[in-house]
């Protein structure tokens, strides 16, 4: 697996717009580009970190061309206009994966 860590500095009063744009774009990438999904974490006031997971580096590098343009542009625009800064913090290869999703009985 391949992991991308993102940092987002969100503008004051734009947190809900950012989260909506991030969710919409992440869902499109999952559906159309083969990602394994992402998690969004709040680090501090207006600072978020996302962890995006891909099956491998080549799938990540080849992504972007299969998205429905109008929907993706709308989500991307909402997310970007809600941020002061967006950056990739790191790209990582998974060595071991011990995250478990607890199933409800």
TrEMBL record:
It holds the Pfam family ABM. Gene3D superfamilies: 3.30.70.100. InterPro entries: ABM_dom, Dimeric_a/b-barrel. It comes from Flaviramulus aquimarinus. This is ABM domain-containing protein. It comes from the Bacteria. Residues 1-62 form the ABM domain.
């Amino acid at each position: 697996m391949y992991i991308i860590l993102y940092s987002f500095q969100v503008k004051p009063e734009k947190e809900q717009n950012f989260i909506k744009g991030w969710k919409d774009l992440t869902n499109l990438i999952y559906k159309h580009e083969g990602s394994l999904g992402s998690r969004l974490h709040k680090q501090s006031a207006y600072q978020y970190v996302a962890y995006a997971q891909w099956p491998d580096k080549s799938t990540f590098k080849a992504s972007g061309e299969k998205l429905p343009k109008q929907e993706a542009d709308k989500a991307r625009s909402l997310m970007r206009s809600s941020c002061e800064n967006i950056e990739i913090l790191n790209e990582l290869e998974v060595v071991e994966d011990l995250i478990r999703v607890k199933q409800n009985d």
